[in-house]
Amino acid sequence: MAISTQWVIAPPRKTVVVKVADAAASNDTGADLVTHSLGSCLGVTLYDPVTHVGALLHVMLPDSSIDPARASQNPCLFVDTGMIRLLQMFARVGGVAARARIKVAGGAQMLDEKGVFRIGERNVQALQQVLAAHSLAVAAWEVGGVLSRTLRLNIATGEVTIQSPGQPTRRL
After folding, report:
1. Which residue, 12, 29, 32, 93, is the most exposed by fewest CB within 10 angstroms?
2. Against a cut of 0.85, is the pTM above it?
């Protein structure tokens, strides 16, 4: 009886980088969505396990009412307007918000040792309000602390990973 070994080389995955105050949505199962340097900012992922659709938002500030003109130019700058934009993008590529697995990272206390501004904490609170208004719940969080994070969403599997300086990659 002969034993046959077969090697299958997977094609390289595409990486779509989501910059600060930006978002992306995809139904390309060969892609990963990634955002870097989440400090007080939040990274929010949505994943529909039925359609294999994912979306990622890198949002900076909690409330667009502080600068409606900037919010109009770039909704992804603020949690309240950014989440609305992300949900729209997600739906446009086939995601259903009611099925979405939502995972969130960031919200650290960066460059604010005395906790005067509490941007990270306020971002988390704003996100909770927006999600509650849409009857959506977060499946997993890694927020707070003082470390920056890189967040990655695999569109094929829905796996979300986090990398911080000096720490191993971990699943969210």
Report:
1. 12
2. yes
Question: What CATH number does residue 62 fall under?
Answer: 3.30.1330.200
Q: In what order do the strands lie in the sheet with 42-48?
A: 22-26, 53-59, 42-48, 101-106, 138-143
Q: Which residues are designated catalytic?
A: 41
Helix (H) or strand (E) holding 132: helix 119-133
* pLDDT tens-place string over residues 132-163: 999 999 999 999 998 999 999 999 999 999 99
Q: Which residues of 116-132 are buried (b: 16+ CB within 10 A; e: fewer)?
A: eebbbbbbbebbeebbe
DSSP SS3 for 150:
strand
Residue-range definition of the domain harbouring residue 32:
14-171
| Residue 46 belongs to some domain of the structure | yes
Q: CA-CA distance, 102 to 138, in Å (whole number)?
A: 5
Q: Residue 92, SS3?
A: helix
